[in-house]
Design brief:
By secondary structure, the protein is α/β, with parallel strands linked by helices. The protein contains 12 helices and 14 strands. α6 packs across α12.
Length: 409
């Protein structure tokens, strides 16, 4: 089986338009959560989100294309452009062995809502001819492939908040099994609109700390009251090891293992003690050929919701046993919010960067740890640590789970 390494990283997030802008804010614990600016949220009980600020899609596509495409697609193209540039890949020369796998959880929900309103008001002639192609979730991967001439495997994972991680895992398997030499992969999401925020708010899933938005996302804190919606895209270039070595590529980390599981329990709540998450992490460790005590750091799913943070902590304790007390665990959602389908892509970029930089990012806003969460969550301040092996977790509605294991090369 082939070895798979990470040779390019790209991010567009509530903390910056590139990884270079984003990463220092992650380490400093600077929150990207503010009052919503993309629409008037005054009718809603939740009026805060982590929006990407100052993004001009015409920096990555021409004006005509920017007018036609929806935001989740534009964000994916922007992050992919950075990742490919970082990897130093000339896709015009060897595109048939380069594929694209980008996960999207919700897609163009605002565009769909606005089109339905227009249909109701003005009739079917007002439906855009681009409504179908730019609403469907796989068009992030499709447009990235079109833009950068990627002619290898092309697909989209739509597994809620695990979408980005599943997309990376599938890309990993394609390279392992010699179906591609390189894969551009990750997640993208832009769903901050009235109908989505209202829907999550009515589920009682979101923080209502409208008065202090930058403190609202507080994973593992005893005073957390829900997650904060975010948006963005995180893209990695995965590459077969010998291929990367032959062209002198910079390697951030090696992707060693991928695990999946299903809860078969509830549409939105995890099972007690994170039983599905336990099986997922165990599968990732087995795939990687790594023992629990070898893992030094976990980028947790850590959504800042009551049940998830407790059950993920309990799952880690079950899987890692006595080694759990030596683990460093953090949730970068304290600063990015929960970027839904993009979360796994963004957090995989952060894990690869943490391994390369020998630095564990903090859990922002963690002032008082929930007594039911009994691990080391790296509160507020980053820590220096040589990370030989690390893990990233993503868990989604519908009981779908995904974990990745990476190592230092």
């Amino acid at each position: 089986m082939k070895r798979v390494v990470i040779s390019g990283l790209g991010v567009i997030s509530p903390l910056g338009l590139t990884l270079k802008e984003t990463w220092p804010n992650v380490l400093a614990g600077n929150s990207g959560v503010t009052r919503i600016s993309s629409f008037d949220p005054s009718r809603l009980p939740v009026q805060i989100a982590a929006e990407v600020k100052g993004f001009n899609p015409e920096t990555v596509m021409d004006a005509k294309e920017a007018r036609r495409t929806t935001r989740f697609i534009q964000l994916a193209v922007a992050a992919a452009k950075e990742a490919l540039s970082d990897a130093g890949i000339d896709t015009a020369r060897e595109s048939e062995r380069i594929g694209c796998s980008i996960g999207v959880g919700i897609g163009a929900i605002e565009f769909i809502h606005d089109t339905v309103v227009s249909l109701s008001k003005d009739g079917p002639r007002r439906i855009s001819p681009f409504f179908i192609p730019f609403s469907i979730t796989n068009m992030a991967a499709g447009m990235v492939a079109n833009t950068f001439n990627l002619k290898g495997p092309n697909l989209c994972s739509a597994t809620a908040c695990a979408s980005g991680t599943h997309a990376i895992g599938e890309a990993f398997l394609f390279i392992k099994n010699n179906m591609a030499d390189m894969m551009v992969c990750g997640g993208s999401e832009s769903a901050i609109c009235e109908v989505a925020v209202g829907g999550f708010a009515n589920m009682k899933a979101l923080s209502r700390n409208n008065e202090q938005p930058q403190l609202a996302s507080r994973p593992f804190d005893r005073n957390r009251d829900g997650f904060v919606m975010g948006e963005g895209s995180g893209i990695l270039v995965l590459e077969e090891y010998e291929h990367a070595k032959a062209r002198g590529a910079h390697i951030y980390a090696e992707l060693l293992g991928f695990g999946m599981s299903g809860d078969a329990y509830h549409i939105s709540s995890p099972p007690p003690e994170g039983e599905g998450a336990q099986r997922c992490m165990t599968a990732a460790l087995r795939s990687a050929g790594v023992n629990p005590e070898q893992i030094a750091y976990i980028n947790a799913h850590g959504t800042s919701t009551l049940i998830n943070d407790i059950y993920e902590s309990e799952a880690i304790l079950k899987v890692f046993g006595s080694a759990a007390s030596r683990l460093m665990i953090s949730s970068t959602k304290g600063v990015t919010g929960h970027c839904l389908g993009a979360a796994g892509g963004i957090e995989a970029v952060f894990l690869a960067k943490a391994i390369a930089a020998s630095t564990v990012p903090p859990t922002a806003n963690l002032e008082e740890v929930d007594p039911k969460c009994t691990l080391d969550y790296v509160p507020r301040h980053a820590r220096a640590l040589k990370i030989n092996y690390g893990m990233s977790n993503s868990f989604g509605f519908g009981g779908t789970n995904a974990s990745l294991v990476m190592c230092n090369v």
